[in-house]
Amino acid sequence: VVGAPGGVKSCVFDRLRYSVKMGDWSVCNENTSVVVPVRRAFVHPKFSTVTTVRNDLALLQLHHPVNFTSNIQPICIPQENFQVEARTRFWGSLGL
What we know:
Elements: E1 2-3, H1 5-13, E2 19-22, E3 34-43, E4 58-62
Antiparallel strand pairs: 1-4, 2-3, 3-4
């Protein structure tokens, strides 16, 4: 699982336990979700928020494998030279 350390930084560095919820596309329809505890978080070694957010990426190792479904799919890892425009808040579609 890929996440942004800006959102999980306090959990990672404070050693709090947390889980990943996958498969929901709506807060009203939760019967497709799977919740898996996180075993370990790997924050990018050069993650920084000193003057600007840099290397905002973390990999989360789950406690057990997850089966893919129509609502749970792997992501595509971009090429090394991939750039995201400034002020991008999220990737993907809301699916609403």
